[in-house]
Every structure is written in C-alpha cells, then in structure tokens.
Amino acid sequence: MNHLEVVDKLPFGFYLDGSQVERILLPNGSAPEGCEVGQMVDVFIYHDSEDRIIATSKIPLAQVNEVAVLKVKSLTRVGAFLDWGLEKDLLVPFSEQERPMSEGIEYVVYVFEDPETGRLAASTKLRDFLSEDGHDLKAGEEADLIICGRTDLGYKAVINGTHLGLIFKDEVFKPIRTGQKMKGYVKRIREDGKIDLCFQLHNEQARKELTELIIDDLIAHDGLSTLTDKSPPHEISQRFGASKNAYKKALGSLFKQKRILIDKTKITLVK
Length: 271
What we know:
Blueprint: E1 2-10, E2 13-17, E3 23-27, E4 40-47, E5 53-56, E6 67-75, E7 79-83, E8 90-93, E9 106-113, E10 120-123, E11 142-150, E12 154-159, E13 163-168, E14 181-189, E15 195-198, H1 204-220, E16 224-225, H2 233-240, H3 244-256, E17 260-262, E18 267-269
Parallel strand pairs: 13-15
Antiparallel strand pairs: 1-2, 1-4, 2-3, 4-5, 6-7, 6-9, 7-8, 9-10, 11-12, 11-14, 12-13, 14-15, 16-18, 17-18
Helix pairs in contact: 1-3
C-alpha cells in the first residue's frame, strides 16, 4: 500500500504523484469516495491488463511476500488466474504450479514480484519462498497456521506466513483441510532444522489445565460423565479440544489422585 497525493483530475479518473514512476492512474471505479486533487490517498499499486502501472483504493486479498488461500477463477494457455479481489486477476504461471490447478478450487499460494517484469504473480511452490529451517523459532511458541497439503506422515502447514512445518498424524484429533487457518504451536525443532507442529502443547501446564477442565465438566454434570477413555476421538475433541491420548493421560492422573473413579461406561467424581 502507498500513501500518494492526487495531482490531477480527468473524466476517466485521477493521476497520483508516483515520484520515481511519474504519474499513476487511479481510475474512477477504483478511487475512494469524495476523491479530489490535493488529497492524500492510500492505494495499492499493480500492473493492469495492458501492463500499465495502476492504482486502486481496494485492498487485495494478498500482497507481495504474503501467503493466502485464493480460488482459481479461470484457466488459460499461460496459467491459472486467481480471484484476489481486484479487477485484474492474479496469475499463477504453469512454471509456478506444484501440480496442475483446477478451476473453482482454492489453493494456498505465495504472492511475489517477478524481478524481470515487475509484475505480481503467485506460486503454489511454497518451498521456493518459505523457510523449512526453524532455528530462528522457539519450541512452545504459538503460531498462526495455514494447512497447505497432506503427506504420508501428516499435514504440511505454513507458519506465520514465513516457514513450513509438519503436523504428524497423531497430533491431529479433529478433521482439517487444505486452506484451513488455525492456531497451533511449534512442538520442536529437529537437529536438521525441520519444524514439527502440534495443536496442543504436551507440557505440565497443559496437562494441569485439561485435568481441571475435566473436573469442571464433571461438576457441571452432577459428578458423572459417559465420556471415557474408550470414547471416539472426535467426541473428546468437541468437548475439551484435546486429543484422545492427552485425555487418557489426564484421566489417569486424576485417577491416581483419587479424584475420579473410572469404569467401562462412565467416569464418576469422587466427592
């Protein structure tokens, strides 16, 4: 985004002072309401379909060096065009497609500026732009994740728009899909720098919080629960946002503390 001055008004739009690139056209349909000469306006700069540098007050769904989930609007002989909220769609050239793209499908893409042409484009080859070395990250820190693919081991995810990491299958306790945005944690950084992720920390504090949630739930249900260590993972996730493994460990801890009784069909709070 750029903060530029309106220097001229014409029947078809306005000209902005672009300094190094001289005047930049801001078409009427892309100008903010009440736009006048002498005003300062916030605009996004890109190339239009005629390869002119053009401005718009509309904010695109993604800007340079950002990761976004965008839908393919059309397929052409040069590549796939994405809907990113502007008049001109965003191109993913064939050379930047990890696999052939399909119309109407959403993809996780990285937006970049072509160094030769100055045009903006997108790529699904995320490894070419994002780091898989997590030595600048810390185990246990919270992260914004975008699920970007599935592997035999689990799911790949974009971390804070800058890194790529892996969520192993046993860390996934509810249905997830490519393009889904969610909170997660850096579980560990491997010796080779690869980043393992999780949706729930497995430290002492997390275990204590889960055990107290279980006790609160029992109190709210008159000291009785039919959600046992044999219950389906999705039912445990829906109630406590925890994996089945974490739930079983929490129940075991409460049983050892003699705070609950466990049998095959129910859990009872010890009063």
